[in-house]
Design brief:
homodimer; alpha/beta; 434 Repressor (Amino-terminal Domain); Rossmann fold; 5-stranded parallel sheet; 4-stranded parallel sheet; 12 helices; 11 strands; 14% strand; elongated; DNA-binding
Chain lengths: 319, 319
DNA sequence: TTGTAAGCGTTATCAG
DNA sequence: CTGATAACGCTTACAA
């Protein structure tokens, strides 16, 4: 593997001149520069990023740390982030599990976007304190160098359930996500408050886990119960899809027998029968917005006022 | 941000002794070691990975470079890779777009797994030649330090169509993926050859693009045509799902009016009505196998005989 | 316009 | 068992 030393030698210049030429620093004689560039090409030279990073104390990498690689939301958010970072000549590094904290602590990234409930508040606060800006999604977190962006889960679900009550639905159930999930809890709060506000005193609570499989199993249990609820609000779209599938297998009519809605507005919702009513934000836009804010923070080292993403209700056929 | 120098100073030892202690090199007096470890904890010290990487000429990172972050296959393969790497104390770095080639060329990774048709053969061969082992998925590529792992697309589709012919289906169509996709072309070859082998001289070819949306649009066109085919083999499951949705909206019975099958065995296929018949491999296993092979190559610097993943036909309800 | 040399934070060789 | 010191490959004052 050739180094800048080899390039310099071949071009007959010093290392620094080679460096200047390769980095387009203006004060290099055009002819010298050409010689150097030719040498680099001849040797198939490419600078060693690790060495550059050590010297410059920046890496040009932004870490995006996720809980797992699956899920239709991640992919959209990631795509938004990728686009924005690429425009600004930053690399996107997506990681998960133990690698995430390694990369963070070892400073192989200049900043991080966290989409992973497993990375504890304490860890993040600790890392951010050392000067690495951290953007947390879907979790509220305060601290030096820490920024967070959350969807208004509670408000959106409230508004939606309110709408359904006005439409005349009376008997509600909530199909939950994991009970330690920030967004599940806030969605449930919005759900409960809407019912309370409109004097609906009872509702059922069905435990699930945000997965298609989980929704499906819940659905099986529901059809076998004596009097199923008239409306099931699902904590996310994936569980709603599983639920729908189970109901359909038992010839339950949606929305006539049981109405359903979800949260997230995943792509697939539009390709179900009936099409899934849901609540959602523009995830790609969320990604670009967050990435943009993080870059501004890194570059100006100043806190920006960050706008949280705006959600909306997407009425389709399932209720 | 504290460095090893600060730790050494606080513990009253030299930098090298501090380094030994922090890296568990045996020849450090237990008491000294404890002092150093305490100092490190007190300062909240964590080694700078970039500096370590420069010195040791390894990063402990494996890059996984994908075309985009969406898609149910990616996520499973990635999860398999992640698991295996984590077991072996390597970090997984997933990237896409321009970042991929940056990270590769700048040597911020010790090896790479490529799942991205956009990274050209020439680029990969060039990088691998410099000593960085590269594992290419879903593409055949030869060269020093290059390894590839492919699914037997052709053989599997052949076997499947053969089965369908024996079942009695006569009038076939192929719903394609992008025409420059390696796997699409091989699947089509298998499809064609099976028909030819069994004397079925004609078939229809419907252009699509591997997406749900694409399958849906194709489905719309098919139901509006005069005599739709009796069997539509889809180049992947996602387009099959879109297709099914379009047919169902027009009350076409699957499989009674039109039978359908796909490729990939994505999770969702089981949650459709009817459940999707498909061909697939165990993607998580594929990921772990490839990661394992890559690690062996990195560690032993010797070429292993690599087993390609074995696929199977998953008969469900759609044909 | 070009060259010399220091230094980024580590690891690792070699003496002591 | 511990400490100087060179080196990894690069950038960047500063000097020439």
């Amino acid at each position: 593997m050739p180094t800048i030393k080899d390039v310099a030698k071949l071009a007959g210049v010093s290392i620094s001149t080679a460096s200047y030429a390769l980095n387009n620093v203006p004060n290099v004689h055009p002819e010298t520069k050409e010689r150097i560039l030719n040498a680099a090409k001849a040797l198939n030279y490419y600078p060693n990023g690790v060495a550059r990073n050590l010297k410059t104390k920046r890496t040009g990498n932004i870490g995006v740390f996720v809980y797992g690689f699956s899920g239709p939301i991640f992919s959209d958010v990631l795509e938004g982030i990728r686009k924005k970072l690429q425009e600004n000549d930053y690399n996107i590094i997506v990681s998960s599990g133990k690698s995430s904290s390694n990369l963070l602590r070892e400073r192989q990234v200049d900043g991080a976007i966290i989409f992973d409930a497993e990375l504890s508040d304490a860890t993040l606060i600790n890392i951010a304190k050392h000067g690495l800006p951290v953007f947390v999604l879907d979790r509220k977190l305060q601290g030096q160098n820490i920024f967070s962006s959350v969807i208004d889960n509670e408000g959106l679900v409230f508004k939606f359930i309110e709408k359904m009550i006005q439409k005349g639905y009376k008997d509600y159930a909530y199909l939950s996500g994991p009970e330690d999930a920030f967004n599940n809890n806030h969605r449930y709060d919005g759900f409960k408050q809407a019912l309370e506000t409109y004097g609906i005193r009872t509702h059922r609570y069905i435990k699930s886990d945000f997965t298609i499989q989980g929704g499906y199993l819940a659905g099986k249990a529901i059809v076998e119960s004596k009097n199923p609820p008239r409306f099931i609000y699902c904590a996310n779209d994936e569980s709603a899809i599983g639920l729908m599938q189970a109901l359909k297998e038992h010839h339950v009519q949606i929305p006539n027998d049981i109405a359903i809605a979800g949260f997230d507005n995943i792509y697939l919702g539009e390709y179900m029968s009936p099409k899934l009513t849901t609540i959602g934000i523009n995830h790609v836009l969320w990604g670009t917005t967050v990435a943009d804010a993080l870059l501004k923070i890194i570059q100006n080292k100043e806190t920006e006022n960050f706008e949280h993403p705006e959600g909306s209700i997407i009425m389709r056929e399932s209720c």
